[in-house]
């Protein structure tokens, strides 16, 4: 899967052909390329490569404008997504170096979705033929669609665009997956690229430019449309944030100490939901039956069950539904964990 990212060349018109191309193929391409590019009616194209002159009538090909590829925010987006994928798939010993070359056949996407969704897809492990690759890709993308459909998100990709190594389509897919699974990453905001669309009509190549918005704001992408005090603390007052964390640690230990339990790290020690369930029982003065939650959870699903159960107990206690998702807490999202604990603090701070 190793590949090297290379930026396209940026002249106004490029019709050069590699020297190693056989003479007969070279002649055909040159003639078709000259006919399309030198015609007085043909619009100027950006970065046309030899393979682009082989388009069938009415066929379309897209490419990212070279200036967009060099944009620092675009490069950052690719790096963040690459690092995220490699982190998720570290146990699989998979290293992705170039999104287009490593994700187009569905193999890596399958592993990524299985890891993120804690599921197993019914697809062949290895597929060499193009038909087999597209069949696998179809199954993977249908699973993605099932995940995203309830949210009403637009699906800006399909089997042909992903298998055709369309980087814009691949980025749309990865950003949507990162949003859905609340990936513990920071996607750069307002990343937009200029896309060149090349279409062959009546033997001539015509181009047009469109803008593709890949990311918006962090709040919109992660589903948090209303900023609260914790957003402000994280962004502008990290010193005060430490004071809040110390206050919450004092609060939770005041009650958990009754069970000879102690918290020193809010981010990690509440991630499996056990302390959260026990804390709610202590605050409301009732015993939580052990069969209702996993006392020693050993999987992501069991941890999510525990946190979700704790949220149900919070609702039963008259509290509002937490802004965070159970998956946020399990994924060690500190801001989400603090929101949950602060909700408890505001109601039970005077409970002995």
Automatic annotation (TrEMBL):
Membrane topology annotation: Peripheral membrane protein
Keywords annotated in UniProt: Actin-binding, Cell adhesion, Cell junction, Cytoplasm, Cytoskeleton, Repeat
Domain Calponin-homology (CH), residue spans: 75-182, 242-349
Entry superkingdom: Eukaryota
Pfam families: CH (PF00307)
Alphabetized SUPFAM superfamilies for the sequence: Calponin-homology domain, CH-domain
One cellular-component annotation, GO: plasma membrane
UniProt xrefs under PROSITE patterns: CH (PS50021)
Molecular function terms from GO: actin binding
Localization, UniProt: Cell junction, Focal adhesion; Cell membrane; Cytoplasm, Cytoskeleton; Cytoplasm, Myofibril, Sarcomere, Z line
GO biological process: actin cytoskeleton organization; establishment or maintenance of cell polarity regulating cell shape; lamellipodium assembly; substrate adhesion-dependent cell spreading
UniProt entry tagged with the keyword Ribosomal protein: no
Entry's family note: Belongs to the parvin family.
The protein's name in its UniProt record: Parvb protein
Organism: Phodopus roborovskii (Roborovski's desert hamster)
């Amino acid at each position: 899967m190793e590949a090297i990212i290379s930026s396209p060349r940026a002249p106004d018109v490029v019709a050069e052909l590699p020297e190693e191309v056989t003479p007969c193929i070279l002649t055909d391409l040159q003639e078709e390329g000259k006919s399309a590019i030198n015609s007085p009616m043909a619009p100027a194209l950006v970065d046309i490569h030899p393979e682009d002159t082989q388009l069938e009538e009415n066929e379309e090909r897209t490419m990212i404008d070279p200036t967009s590829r060099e944009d620092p925010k675009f490069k950052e987006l690719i790096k963040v997504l690459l690092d995220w994928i490699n982190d998720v798939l570290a146990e699989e010993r998979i290293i992705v170096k170039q999104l287009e070359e490593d994700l187009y056949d569905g193999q890596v996407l399958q592993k990524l979705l299985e890891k993120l969704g804690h599921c197993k897809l019914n697809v062949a492990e290895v597929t060499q033929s193009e038909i087999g690759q597209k069949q696998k890709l179809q199954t993977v993308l249908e699973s993605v669609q099932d995940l995203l459909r309830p949210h009403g998100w637009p699906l800006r990709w399909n089997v042909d665009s992903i298998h055709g190594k369309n980087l814009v389509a691949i980025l749309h897919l990865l950003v949507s997956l990162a949003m859905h699974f609340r990936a513990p990453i920071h996607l750069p905001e307002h990343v937009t690229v200029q896309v060149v669309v090349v279409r062959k009509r009546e033997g001539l190549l015509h181009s047009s430019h469109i803008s593709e918005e890949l990311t918006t704001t962090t709040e919109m992408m992660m589903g948090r449309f209303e900023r609260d005090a914790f957003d402000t603390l994280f962004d502008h007052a990290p010193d005060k944030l430490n004071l809040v964390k110390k206050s919450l640690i004092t609060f939770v230990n005041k009650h958990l100490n009754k069970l000879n339990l102690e918290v020193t790290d809010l981010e990690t020690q509440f991630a499996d939901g056990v302390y959260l369930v026990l804390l709610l029982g202590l605050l409301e003065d009732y015993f939580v039956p052990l069969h209702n939650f996993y006392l020693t959870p050993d999987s992501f699903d069991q941890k999510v069950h525990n946190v979700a159960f704790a949220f149900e107990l919070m609702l039963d206690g008259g509290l509002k539904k937490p802004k965070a998702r159970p998956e946020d807490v399990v994924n060690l999202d500190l801001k989400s964990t603090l929101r949950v604990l602060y909700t408890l603090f505001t109601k039970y701070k005077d409970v002995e």
